[in-house]
Structure formats: C-alpha cells, structure tokens
Write a sequence for this structure.
C-alpha cells in the first residue's frame, strides 16, 4: 500500500522541477514588490514535519497522543500588504495510550488518525529581502478518528471545534516562483472535562460543565509554489 508520506514527497519533487523552469517575462512594466503589484495570487505548499503533545484527563488516568510524523498542505490566497488567507489541512497517524494513575490497570495503545481542517490568516513582516518572518492564526475542526477503542471495539470519529496560533519564516528562491517555508504551530482543541460547577441565584441554580484543553505542538517545513 502506498504511504501518504510517499505521495507528499512525490508531489514536492514534481513541483520543484516545474518551478525550476525559466520565469516568464512580466506582463506589466511595474516590477513586483512585497506590498505593491504582485503577479501571483496563490501559494500552494505540501509539507511534512513532527507533532508532539496532546493529552486528556479521564477517570483513572490520562489519554495521551504519542509524538509522531505529520503531513498536510496549505493553500494561500495572497492579499495586500503581506497578508494572506490560508486553508490548512494536517494529518497525524499515531497511537492513543492510556496512562493510569493509582491502581487503574494499564491498557495497550490503539491507532488513531488526527486531522485538522482550518481556515485563517497569515501576516508577514518586513519590507525587503527574500527572508520573511510571519505569524498565523486559524479556526476550524479537529477530527479524532480512532481505529478502535482501548477495549478493542470499533469507535466512530469525534469532531471538535479547534484553533491554532503559529509563527514561521519564508525564503523566496531566485526564480521568484517557489520558496521554502517553515512553521512552528500550536493546535488547541477544547473538550468537556467531566467536572461540573453549580451556581445558585435567587430563583434557580445553574450547572456548568468544565473544559479541558487538548494542545499539540508542531514543527513543519516544505516547498511553496506561486501561481
């Protein structure tokens, strides 16, 4: 069976050969600039990297996602003044382990796929040079798709609201049609904690469920292509 990571690297290699072709002459006399006219409207970047963290406290212990390889892609629509709207997809194939506390029994880990699908923005800094730092932020979905439960029975996927914050840098290659990008990002997914608080007023009482935060760190890199 073809591994997803093999497909990602095949796409990167093919697009790199395409970007090495000579750059066509500009159709407009005004040269492109970071905050002025830009002949390109989109960026496409397949990427790969490493993701760590992600735990959730449950009765008797903690559920923990194991650190592993990740891959995905970013499609960016280039706007004005170094900003962009970005659609991001990430996939992590890993294992979910149960870390018991006290006398709780230890259980074998199970396979799980973590997917993030989010839309957000990127803002670059600086007015010149080929190296450009930036910050990112996005909102969307976190999809946790276990292959089975810890007891061996089948389980459905769990889709939650999630968000991310990140920073990174881009380096534009000499041909002006491709570059290298690296991101450092934090993914956050809120989960019900199972704890409840009760507040009583003059007329009634209200029960509110607490929230736990599943956070994962990520470092990725890839080649982006302008078109």
């Amino acid at each position: 069976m073809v591994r997803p990571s093999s497909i990602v690297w095949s796409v990167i290699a093919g697009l790199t050969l395409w970007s090495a072709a000579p750059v066509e002459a500009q159709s407009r006399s005004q040269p492109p600039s970071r905050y002025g006219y830009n002949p390109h409207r989109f960026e496409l970047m397949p990427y790969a990297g490493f993701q760590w963290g992600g735990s959730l406290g449950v009765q008797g212990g903690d559920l923990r996602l194991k650190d592993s390889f990740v891959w995905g892609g970013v499609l960016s629509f280039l706007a004005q003044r170094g900003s962009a709207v970005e659609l991001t997809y990430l996939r992590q194939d890993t294992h979910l382990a149960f870390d018991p506390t006290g006398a709780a029994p230890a259980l074998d880990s199970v396979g799980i796929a973590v997917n993030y699908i989010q839309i957000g923005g990127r803002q670059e800094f600086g007015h010149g040079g080929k190296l450009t730092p930036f910050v990112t932020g996005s909102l969307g979905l976190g999809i946790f798709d276990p292959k089975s439960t810890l007891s061996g029975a089948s389980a459905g996927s769990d889709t939650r609201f999630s968000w991310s914050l990140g920073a990174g840098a881009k380096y534009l290659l000499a041909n002006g049609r491709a570059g290298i990008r690296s991101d450092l990002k934090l993914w956050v997914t809120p989960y019900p904690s199972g704890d409840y608080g009760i507040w009583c007023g003059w007329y009634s009482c209200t029960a509110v469920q607490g929230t736990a935060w599943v956070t994962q760190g990520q470092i990725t890199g890839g080649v982006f292509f302008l078109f």
